[in-house]
Amino acid sequence: MTTTGEERERGFDHTEIEPRWQRTWDEADVFRIDDDETDPEYVLAMFPYTSGSLHMGHVRNYTITDAYARFERMRGESVLHPMGWDSFGLPAENAAEERDTNPRDWTMQCIDSMRDQLTEMGFGYDWDRELATCEPEYYQWNQWLFKQLREEGLVERQAAELNWCPSCETVLADEQVEGEDELCWRCDTPIEAREMDQWFFTITDYAEELLESLDDLDGWPNNVREMQRNWIGKQEGASVAFEVGDYGEVDIFTTRLDTIHGATFFSLAPGHPVAQEIAQQNDEVSEYIEMAEQADEDDLDVTSGVFTGEYAINPATGEEIPVYVADYVLTDVGTGALYAVPAHDERDHEFAEAHDIDIVQVVEPTDDADADPEAIDVQEAAYPEDGVLVNSGEFDGLESAEARDRFVEAFDGEHRTEYNLRDWGISRQRYWGTPIPMIHCDDCGYVEVPDEDLPVELPEFVHTTGNPLDAADEWKHVDCPDCGADAVRETDTMDTFVDSSWYFLRYTSPEMEEAPFDAERASDWMPVDQYVGGIEHAVMHLLYARFFTKVLDDLDMVDGVREPFTNLTNQGMVLGEDGNKMSKSLGNGVSPQRIIEEYGADTARLFIMEAAQPEKEFAWSPEGVQSAHSFLQNVYTLVSAYAEGEAGTAADTGNGADIADYVAREIDATAANATAEFEELRFNHALQAVRELVSLLRRYQEATTPDADTFERGLATAAKLLAPVAPHAAEEMWAELGHDDLIAEAEWPAAEAPADYGMERQLVENTREDIRDIVDTVGIEDPQTITLAVAPEWKHRVLNLARNADGNVVGTVMQDEELREQGEAAADFAKELAGRAQSLDEQLPPEREQAALERAAWLVEREFGADVVVQGPEEADPDLVGKAGPGRPAIDIAE
Ligand SMILES: [Zn+2]
Ligand SMILES: [Zn+2]
Fold this sequence. Notes:
Elements: H1 5-10, H2 14-27, E1 41-45, H3 56-74, E2 79-80, E3 84-85, H4 90-99, H5 103-120, E4 131-132, H6 136-151, E5 155-165, E6 170-172, E7 177-178, E8 183-184, E9 192-201, H7 207-212, H8 222-232, E10 234-244, E11 249-254, E12 265-268, H9 273-281, H10 283-294, E13 305-313, E14 320-326, E15 337-340, H11 346-355, E16 363-364, E17 388-389, H12 400-410, E18 414-419, E19 424-425, E20 427-428, E21 438-441, E22 445-448, H13 468-471, H14 473-476, E23 477-479, E24 486-489, E25 493-494, H15 496-499, H16 503-506, H17 519-525, E26 528-533, H18 540-554, E27 565-570, E28 574-575, H19 592-599, H20 601-611, E29 618-619, H21 622-643, H22 655-679, H23 683-703, H24 708-722, H25 727-736, H26 757-778, E30 785-789, H27 793-804, H28 809-814, H29 817-820, H30 824-834, H31 846-864, E31 867-871, H32 878-882, E32 890-894
Parallel strand pairs: 1-2, 1-26, 3-4, 12-14, 26-27, 28-29, 30-31
Antiparallel strand pairs: 5-6, 5-9, 7-8, 9-19, 10-11, 10-13, 10-18, 12-15, 13-14, 16-17, 20-25, 21-22, 21-24, 23-24, 30-32
Helix pairs in contact: 2-25, 3-20, 4-5, 9-10, 19-20, 20-21, 21-24, 21-25, 22-23, 22-24, 22-31, 23-24, 24-25, 26-31, 27-30
InterPro entries: aa-tRNA-synth_I_CS, aa-tRNA-synth_Ia, Leu-tRNA-ligase, Leu_tRNA-synth_edit, M/V/L/I-tRNA-synth_anticd-bd, Methionyl/Leucyl_tRNA_Synth, Rossmann-like_a/b/a_fold, tRNAsynth_Ia_anticodon-bd
GO molecular function, one term: ATP binding
Catalytic activity: tRNA(Leu) + L-leucine + ATP = L-leucyl-tRNA(Leu) + AMP + diphosphate
């Protein structure tokens, strides 16, 4: 960057002003909110994982919430804008291993450093409400809530498949399994799958409500709602029982009961109780099940399966069909059993081909379908669409939908709804998380840790190959709370998504010692009004937080709050300069720290907010950064020059009054426009409006001696509109303008566009465009005088009649007595308008049109270097006036 000595002297030094204003805000408690505030605006960013350093994605995320929070605060709202730390998780354990420290010390160090970085960015948080999920003061409530959920019947032990290292004899987290070969991260032994009992929250109990209430979340992006709908995956179908060998009836679930006559085999999941029973008699089945249990769920082979030697009776046909155990049938989906129709299901088709099973068509396209029935060969490929039944006995000719309905009764089935959503397994075999408050006693089974013994605090970190909690012998062995016998603590910790499922409630009363949060305050302050974070949380975090909120309402802990986040924004990615995702390997990352040092936090914030709307991704651009930087310096220079009296202070008269009038209207319009854009989080549009205002003020100063009040109001408005995004520079400008208070607490500029502003702006733009056209077309080198003549009153009258005439414009016009006096001219003008009667805009009346042009004349004078004369219809040359229309003044240019 090249700066002349004078500019440097004039501009501000971000290294000096930014820390100074940060201290001032802090001392003035600008961002603190009192507990007794009523229903504040709750603005929240998803809290960061404590990696130790902020990246550009964080900077963007937090700039959005900070700018919005500051905007709302200046509008007089009380604002809750807290910050905390998602500080449990495996990376801290890894870091502790690498650095020969422990997860706690490492995490606390990361928090300190990230807090400093957030402060340096100028983000205004109520630090009194800071929380860290790894503190016992926080995670004791995870434990307490676990017990509450258990009391509600929402906690279960269920079997789940885990990664097992046979050499380390320990369970591994997914992140501890490395590479395509799936090797243990410590010893490189290939991992095995092992089924073990785990703790689950039965979120499926809330599946229907979680799905249905998505429809009412109007403030959420549609794609996120759709992702949640798909994740919940509601399927309406039916269940029917098949008699399987000597094993009795087995229920199946299907959404395609219409195809039941085409069932040619029957499949059981390896975990299905009947499959397990068969395995006891059948070695082949038993071997297959063992193999399937050890395989990873991800490499399901659609054709893998084994014939059991058993047959099932199809209730529709009475025929026997072979029974297979196949691992493409998932134990936990539907009933874990299904009848297979290879003619109409692609997966069944593949399996049938591999095992040489019959394929029988029972549905063909309807007459009005695009497909030609003759062209369909189900031996070649499945036909999965609905259609008309064939080979279905007395039901031939029925349409699929009707058949599905009739068959439920015909075959003794029942209507049934299934969901893809699974229960939420929360057990993690790792150290750095919330200990699950359970104790296992040989006699009593699982016993809860009594409330008075909470929190169950983590013991000292143990360096071990396995789970450190398992190795913490002293911690692990306790007396059974029920019978006093020797017992063992649960050594699994909770999924860290439990921590983030309710942290937004804790911010309302972070010091609360008797409960996770103050129910009354939380009920008043919730839901979060504006929640901002990454799209990667569309399903897990956002679904779990919704689940928790509903449960807490059912526990009477939040009164009637059933959704946690009213409005949700997912910020887009900040890409590297090359348009790729920022990454170490590409070397295209930009460090926030470096940008702050070189240009200041305001520049980084302004650049990011100007680059794109929050949801859109954009590429880092050094030119954009430079432009943001110069803009701030330029506005500041304009302000300080004015403050030093260089801009002149005399209130002008004559022509000057018109200009001041024009500028005043633009100031009001800018404030109104920017306010509307801020409300919708379209910061880039708001900032564009500010840039235009500043450019106008500069031209104003160049054109004449500005009216002091108007000019100062313009500068103050620009500073205020910049304050949410570039808060330090804005404070500096505010102080230069002589204010003792903080702009962060100043009043947002009154935001009402002047009457008819839109029409006036259009008029001025069109007129300037017309002048440019004439100058270009005629080739005028040096215009001396530009005369603008406004159309007479009667043409406005014609326009208004034409706009409201239904069809017969000329007739309507000529019925008007006053207009008839204009004779031929009125008829001609009416004909001209009749051609485009549909697209006639309302225009300013003649005297207002004249005034608007007089106000804007200075801009035309500056652009063309010519004198501008604005004339009313009476004073102008009749020939010229004859060419004028409403909103389109006649133009004469003299060289
Ligand atoms: Zn290992
Ligand atoms: Zn016991």
